Amino acid sequence: MINKKIYTIVVNLPGGIVATGYLLTALQALAKAGIQEVQLGTRQQLFVKVNAQQLTLLETELRSHYIAFELIEKSSPNIVSSYVNEGVFENSNWLSEGVYKDVLNLFDFTPQLKINLVDNTQTFVPYFTGNLNFIASKINNYWYLYLRYPQTNQLYLWPVLIYTTDIPLLSKQIEPTLQKLGITTKILPADWGTLVYKQVNLVASFITHPITEALHVPTFMMPYYEGFNRYGNKSWLGIYRRDEVFSVAFLLDVCSVCIQTKIGQVYTTPWKSIVVKGIENADRKLWDYVLSKHRINVRHAANELNWQIEDMCSDGLNLKRFLIRQFDKEDVRTFGLCFAVKTMPNSSIWGSVIIEKKNTDHPAQRKSVDKYDIWYTQDFNPNSKEYVLFRSDVAKENIATYLISLCKYFYELKNDEEGILHRIYREDTPTAANTSKEPPTHFVHQCEHCFTIYDCDLGDIDNGIPPGTDFSQLPEHYACNTCEAPKQDFVMVIKKTAVVL
Predict the structure, then answer these.
(1) Closest Cα to residue 48, out of 66, 68, 72, 24?
(2) Closest by CA position to 303, among listed 217, 385, 400, 375
(3) What is the pLDDT of residues 462-481, one digit of tens each?
């Protein structure tokens, strides 16, 4: 009997950095095994889907060239870094190429916990999606460490700053310590982080520095990471694929041009894209030729680039496409936001707005009746672990309408902040209106079918409900005066975030 099973191989690219020659060798092995496509992951790794016959041949080829790989079921998480930002989106005070490489080269083991190495000035790479989140401080060669307990949003700030070269050793000590303590998510004690800190310091010593000021995470701003862009006297190229798939033939040509033009590294990003740095102006014609040969579009709309989808998730990708079409139709502005689609309960996904598919007790349930919850993070900061529920049990066809309303709310908040900043800049004397307290939040109830609003201050004259009648006081037979939906189909919302048609 022929084995038709499809396997997924993972090639980890530590820090999202891959030497051009290493990538070329790996791609040549894939081509020899008859593999035509690869995908990138949110942790900057490479995924390859193969059948049983291809797997046997590919394993032989990869091992012969010392290319490290794992089957996805047994794979270890890739180390994420913000190295791709350096010199392109951001320039840090002290965190250079050499520092990143020093840390990565000192890992003499394969981490089983997710590790993030990020600069504290950038917003392109997530800060807290790892279990060990090392974030550069303002002090040269010292890092904050935020532990996030696996499969939770529980964060613990390490009481001291960690020296650069101690990052691999500390990481190596923390993994077995968590296992030794035997802490589970069901009985996670409030002092779990302190227990880990004390235990680690019993078995090893590290170079540290006192924390003299709290970490400041900058306001999220999504850089446009696609196409040709100038920096200094050179250019960098960002390549995004709408279907998240890169052809092996295209990547082979990318490597060939890199080698020909003496570009030694290629970078992967958490947005499942590729960045090539250091392109000389005289070499642009070579890159234009390769992009044209493979019909690669490098100018997608910004509202398509700010999405995080779980790795190799067709359901999430299809929902993203559906929502983007709605955004395009309504000409929606999404600058300053990033969206995430979560279809699996334990996935670690990053966004300021999260569309989460609700779990069902009936696996065979038709997709047409799938329901989603819409969340947003505190202050719309995607690095926040505080989530606010915006809408619950939303049908797919209504998600875009609610997202548009949420975008409207986001810009209302931003405009308020910008107005305040503008008044401060002009050094105006605050008026009574400026200094008065913000009015209390006003809640209304909205029909989830036609979006008709019931406001207790106004009542419902058409149905004989006088002003001042609280929603809870409405009779059980009360129905929407527009679509006649029952009372239980109304949801409570903040008035200024309600959908207005």
Answers:
(1) 72
(2) 400
(3) 788 888 898 888 988 888 87
pLDDT at residue 493 above 90? Answer: no
* Cα end-to-end span (Å), the chain: 58
Number of domains in the chain: 5
User: What residues does 6 pair with on adjacent strands?
Assistant: 51
Q: Could you tell me if 114 and 185 lie in one domain?
A: yes
Residues 133 and 199 in one domain: yes
Q: pLDDT tens for residues 201-236? A: 998 999 999 999 999 999 898 999 999 999 889 999
Give which of 58, 63, 6, 9 is closest to 31, Cα–Cα. 58
Closest to 72 measured CA to CA, from 164, 8, 121, 161: 8
Q: Show the domain range for 339.
A: 303-436
Amino acid at 22: Y
pLDDT in tens, 340-384: 999 998 888 899 999 999 976 555 555 557 899 999 998 899 999
Label residue 407 exposed, middle or buried (CB < 10 Å: 0-12, 13-18, 19+): buried
The single residue listed with the structure tokens 């900057």 is: 44
Helix axes 192-203, 167-181, angle to 10 degrees: 120
Domain containing residue 22: CATH number: 3.30.70.260
Strand partners, 133: 116, 146
Measured over the CA atoms of residue 383, residue 387, residue 389 and residue 393, the dihedral's sign is: positive
- Which burial class, exposed, middle or buried, applies to 437 when counting CB atoms under 10 A from its CB (0-12, 13-18, 19+)? exposed
